């Protein structure tokens, strides 16, 4: 079965500290649904080399055992509470994608 992934790109973050409340709720909610954070860059010391457009925005990649599990995690009550804490000054492009078998 193909895995499922959450891909989040943050084109604009007015104040990185504003993400703290969201992160405190989202992390445990994702883990409770079986999600594993594979990458979170450039924060937490992660490295990035940008090509093409040269944009080094924050990118978060989370893996789930299946696409269905990824969708269910997003729809979970705990994650929906985390979304409420996502500040207005944050612009985010979020996708749930199917992995390749």
UniProtKB/TrEMBL annotation:
Specify the DUF1330 domain's residue ranges.
Answer: 3-99
Q: Give the signal peptide as a residue range, or say none if absent.
A: none
InterPro entries given in the database record? Dimeric_a/b-barrel (IPR011008), DUF1330 (IPR010753)
Protein's UniProt name: DUF1330 domain-containing protein
Q: Which organism is it from?
A: Streptomyces flavofungini
